[in-house]
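Hey team,

Filing this mostly as a record. A colleague (T.K.) asked me to run one chain through the structure pipeline before their review meeting, and I want the input and output archived in the tracker in case anyone asks later how it was produced. No errors, nothing strange. Just documentation.

Input sequence:
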Amino acid sequence: MTALRFVLRGTPDQRLDLSPLTADRLAGLGSVAIEALPLQTGRHKVTVGDVFRVHSGDASHILFEGGSDRFDRVGEAMKSGVLEVEGDAGQQVGRLMAGGTLIIRGNAGGWAASGLLGGRVEVLGDAGGFLGGPVSGERTGMRGGIVLVHGKAGPRAADRLRRGLVIIEGDAGEHAGSGMVAGTLVVCGAAGPLPGILMRRGTIVLGRPAELAPSFVVSGGAPLVFSGLLARAVGPVSEAAARCVRDAAARYAGDMAVLGKGEVFVAG
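Output structure:
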């Protein structure tokens, strides 16, 4: 089936909330009805038709032809289907997704995959801060699903991760995996200072040595059986992550300043 296409008319002059444009919300609507839908903004009222030319197609596959860093909340609360953005996207893309696949063929702003419950979010470029992390007022971040960033990520990636898998094939900013409760974070490149600080449980794999908090303790080498199992688990998502896991040589336990049942593996 042909995808439901949204062709960008021109660079938007304000931030736009695109959360209404998902498969479950658009099912059964024609292009005329979709173009009449209002979009929340910060300044003046606009409709979908003011921003996009809509070409009819199967709502289970949505394609935005043209992106912008002003496109916020793309794919929010998706339950199924495939949504692709050919270009950049703004903040909170994929927030509270429960299923389906969201692909950003550019960069994504802060809080991408915030509160993710399930499904997959893939960013071909870079991601902003708090990737998979909670927004203000929330206690935990991602609770399931898969996030793959092919570029780098900003500070506090996987902040307070509770469940799920986060892979960053490039570098990550400071405090990656801060406050993790559970789940897995793989950073194939360099991580900024203090990855895993205040993590209680969970697993972090770092492709390069990083400045850990002094409350982490050396705990021998990476168990070969564990490395092999984790590499097979992440391999279908990212071969770069699988190589990073297989190269893990040192293991640190922590953060002993809190519960101390987390672990950080560092490639040799």
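Quick notes for T.K.: The radius of gyration is 19 Å. The longest helix spans residues 224-234.
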